[in-house]
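Incident log, structure service

09:12 report received: a user says their structure output differs between two submissions of the same chain.
09:20 pulled the input from the user's history:
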Amino acid sequence: MCPVVPLGNLVQTDVFFPGGIVVPNLRITGSTARKEMGLLLENETYSSTSGLKDEDKNNLWGVLLAILGNFLISISLNLQKYVHLRLACRADQRTYIKSKLWWCGIVLMGIGELGNFAAYGFAPVILIAPLGCTSVIGSAVVSLLFLQESLRASDLIGGTVAISGIYLMVTFSPCASQEVTGVKIQQYLIRWEFMLYLILEIIVFCVLLYFYKAKDKKHIVIVLMLVALLASATVISVKAVSSMLMATVKGKIQLTYFIFYAMLVIMISSCIFQVKFLSQAKQLYSATEVLPINFVFFTTSAIIAGIAFYDEFHGSSFLNVLMFLFGSLLSFLGVFLITRNRERRDLQVSYINFGQVPGKKIASTIQPVSNRLSYGTLQNEDDSVASQCKERKTD
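09:34 re-ran on a clean worker, output below:
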């Protein structure tokens, strides 16, 4: 609608109708012309504003689902850890699979992951991925209740910094919400920006995999970089599958597109290999090292993937992009402060001097294995004596 030119009792304007039909210099006469045209302009303004409100509403739903899902995941992990610690202290050594509390944790984790999955259907990837820091904040809070861990000053500072980063990311996130369909995904796949990004990612992944497998390099950066590169494929496919399912629920059937099932296979396979490498990293390094580095790598990879594939910063101002990235850096810093110098809570068991055990001739000290419920097997007295005799003969 072009600007309205009042001419006494006349109202002159250009009117655009659907289909590209334009009526230039349309004049409306009568005493109620101004009132009718005012209502028309008001309806037009309301319709354009309501579109922005719908986009903000979708982003808000996505943020709430992601925060709730990550918080449930943090509760689930602490519940499972609490069950393992409690069962390890008992004499009967009952398996954790028989614990109802452990199964409650599994159910909560499933609900949380489902919330994260649905969140990608409402909001952009670059907004949902950094919200994973809420699981770290929630884990620090829940551990005070379930595991009775102490509250440190770095926890309070890190939580405040991370929440400030979340606020900046939500405030300055891209407002342009796009409906992802099968046709659009096929168009995104052939964009030159994504093709260049895909080629570079494949080259880097192959080089890292060569050092990991052939050279047997298990450095934490190499392992978690492999996790992050797989995570980029995960977030792209999760966003595609979730958005196409939402479009199907709204009445626009997307399940007939082959790209839907291709993205579903990519999502499942990338998740499996991602968990494999992440488990390897947790076995080799402590959680205080794995958690912050993995969060930084994963978030950075997800943001780059969202930009390269879905072009989610398109139309955003330089200030919005700068403040969004600053919010991401604050969330990185908050996670680092929360996980910094946090000790693992294991069973409080002491060292055992076998020289004090009756009937044992060996006198040495061993450290109990933290991830097992027993100290291992001891040599029989005869075997110990025989081994000592052999050593004397060789001397």
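09:41 both user submissions now match this output. Likely a transient worker issue. Closing.
09:42 reviewer note: Residues 352-390 form one domain. The chain has twelve helices and five strands.
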